[in-house]
Design a protein that fits this description.
The complex is a heterodimer of chains A (256) and B (284). Chain A is α/β, with parallel strands linked by helices. In chain A, 34% of the residues lie in helices and 25% in strands. Chain B folds into 2 domains: 2-41; 44-283, MetI-like (MetI-like fold, Orthogonal Bundle), CATH 1.10.3720.10. In chain B, helix 10 (233-241) runs antiparallel to helix 11 (246-280). Chain B is globular, with a radius of gyration of 23 Å. Classes of the chains: A alpha/beta (256), B mainly alpha (284). The interface between A and B is medium-sized, with 34 and 22 residues. Bound molecules: adenosine-5'-triphosphate and magnesium ion.
Chain lengths: 256, 284
């Protein structure tokens, strides 16, 4: 048994199937996500990585005709249970999107908005903003312009702002859907460094198309193909000794 | 390399230029005539006098006050109702055939001639509800007339708000209501405001529905109460234009200049409010 499976998982899916009407998005996926670990979801375009990621904090709720079977357990609770408030859930499971999507407000308001709605103490907010921006490695660049529009930031800065916005909610899980795909190599490596420091505090799930990135930042890798999970395990093992021939073909660039 | 001759491009270009020149030309001629005839009559007396049989003493006081009454009351009825209907249709209503039927009908209603609204107002507000030929009847009729415009402007402005902003807000744990209130509405507000101002400008320019419900054309008192009878600028203009004497035509031109002034100030107000909104959310 792998050592990582010895601890209690923060988040897990059990035979999770997501359908768009009759069309299968992902099928029968069981994965466990652990505290202080980065899990990378890889696979060719259209294999269902985003579909799967969105189902982990109920962002699929906004797509009409989505049907979900199987279970998603967060700290042991079924998040699709009728007693769960999805808005409350998303405070605990934050999300960073593929394209940076800051609010058309000031940098300060971008981060403060969520905590204010969640009734964080008012006096605590300035400190929270500084801490989040420091954690997102953005503080030094924006500390003198907190009250200017976030839309004036560069793409890489906007994406780090979105990360700061997500961690300001003090989530325990952070979902990231190709967070670097719109960024240049320098901004990308900053965000990769950031993920390394963030993983001490959060359970991180990251979708990426970049194999090197998955190898660099993740502890565990899950390989998806045509809506199915082909294999998952420690990143080192997946990249050096994959069990399945499809994984090997994908990693060596034979397809995808 | 030689540029390829394209008949379509040329056609579109010259027709476009011709259309702009023609419509702008007509507008300029029209405005010039009105201003030449109307400006000399624009004295303070003209604004503060009641209408009269003698052109030299006639003024638009009662019509001006009536227009403001209609404007304010129509705004009170139609803005909340129209904006809330738009929000409901776009954000809350289930997407089914009932909703689509309603939307198609609202689109059609915005194309119905205004006289028809006048007949409806006459039957419902004046006769059935017994509001008589009052400001209330007029404002309610005008509200019906401009509701479709406000609803359509609202739904379109809301639809133009990018999905990514909503998802960002949901992503930090916002409830659907908070997303609408804090993100969708502020983003849609400039578009909604423009629609509202356009609709209200239409309301103060229309005369046919008010003539249908029997608004008076000669009012020598100031309405004090929503149930008082009234006249408005557009009716006063209509009345003066239809008289044979030249002197009354000049008065009509002056009144038109006043009406244009009101419409223009409303548009300036809308622009001011729009820039205020853009500034408040941090500029872009
Ligand atoms: N809103 C939707 N409605 C219907 N089908 C969808 C929707 N979103 C995704 N799908 C389908 O589900 C499947 C998985 O899509 P998904 O976006 O999860 O793939 P992905 O692995 O994230 O791809 P990419 O790497 O290109 O982002 C695809 O076949 C896609 O067409
Ligand atoms: Mg995707």
């Amino acid at each position: 048994m792998l050592p990582v499976t010895n601890v209690f998982p923060k988040l897990l899916t059990d035979k999770l199937t997501v359908k768009y009407g009759e069309k299968v998005g992902v099928e029968n996926i069981s994965i466990k996500f652990f505290d202080s670990k980065v899990t990378a979801l890889i696979g060719p375009s259209g294999c269902g990585k985003s579909t799967y990621l969105r189902s982990l904090n109920r962002m699929n709720d906004f797509i009409p005709n989505v049907k979900i079977t199987g279970k998603v357990l967060f700290s042991g609770q079924d998040i699709y249970d009728s007693s769960i408030d999805p808005a409350l859930l998303r405070r605990h499971i934050g999300m960073v999107f593929q394209k940076p999507n800051p609010f058309p407000k000031t940098i300060f308001e971008n981060i403060a908005w969520g905590p204010k709605r969640a009734k964080f103490a008012k006096t605590e907010i300035p400190q929270l903003i500084e801490d989040s921006l420091r954690q997102a490695a953005l503080w030094d660049e924006v500390k003198d312009r907190l009250h200017t529009s976030a839309l004036g930031l560069s793409g890489g800065q906007q994406q780090r702002l979105c990360i700061a916005r997500a961690i300001a909610m003090r989530p325990s899980v952070l979902l990231m859907d190709e967070p670097c795909s719109a960024l240049d190599p320098i901004a990308t490596s900053r965000i990769e460094d950031l993920i390394q420091t963030l993983k001490e505090k959060y359970t991180i799930v990251i979708v990426t198309h970049n194999m090197q990135q998955a190898a660099r930042v993740s502890d565990i890798t899950a390989f998806f193909l045509n809506g199915k999970l082909v294999e998952s395990g420690e990143t080192k093992q997946i990249f050096t000794l994959p069990k399945e021939i499809e994984t090997e073909n994908y990693l060596t660039g034979k397809f995808g | 390399m030689q540029r390829k001759f394209s008949f379509e491009a040329l056609f579109v270009k010259y027709c476009g230029v011709a259309a702009v020149v023609f419509s702008l030309g007509c507008l300029i001629v029209l405005l010039t005539v009105i201003f030449i005839n109307g400006i000399p009559g624009l004295r303070l007396d003209f604004l503060t006098h009641f209408p009269s049989r003698f052109p030299a003493q006639a003024g638009i006081f009662s019509a001006l006050i009536g227009t403001f009454w209609i404007l304010v009351m129509t705004a009170l009825f139609s803005i909340p109702l129209g904006v809330m209907t738009g929000i409901y249709l776009e954000e809350l209503a289930k997407d089914n055939w009932v909703k689509r039927l309603i939307q198609v009908n609202i689109a059609n209603l915005s194309g119905v001639p205004s006289v028809v609204y006048g007949i409806l107002g006459l039957a419902v507000f004046v006769r059935f509800l017994g509001f008589d030929r009052s400001i209330l009847s007029g404002a309610l009729t005008m509200s019906l007339l401009i509701l479709p415009i406000i609803i359509i402007a609202t739904t379109e402005a809301i639809r133009a708000v990018p999905l990514s902003i909503r998802l960002a807000a949901f992503g930090v744990g916002a409830s659907p209501r908070q997303v609408i209130w804090y993100h969708v509405l502020p983003e849609a507000m400039p578009g909604i405001l423009t629609g509202v101002v356009l609709a209200l400008s239409r309301a103060i320019g229309e005369s046919a529905p008010l003539i249908m419900i029997g608004a008076l054309s000669f009012v020598a008192f100031v309405p004090h109460h929503p149930l008082d009878s009234f006249t408005v600028l557009s009716i006063q203009i209509f009345n003066w234009v239809s008289r044979p004497q030249e002197a009354f035509h000049a008065l009509a031109s002056s009144a038109i200049v006043v009406l244009l002034g009101i419409t223009l100030s409303m548009n300036v107000l809308a622009i001011y409010l729009r820039t205020r909104f853009v500034q408040r959310r941090g500029g872009d």
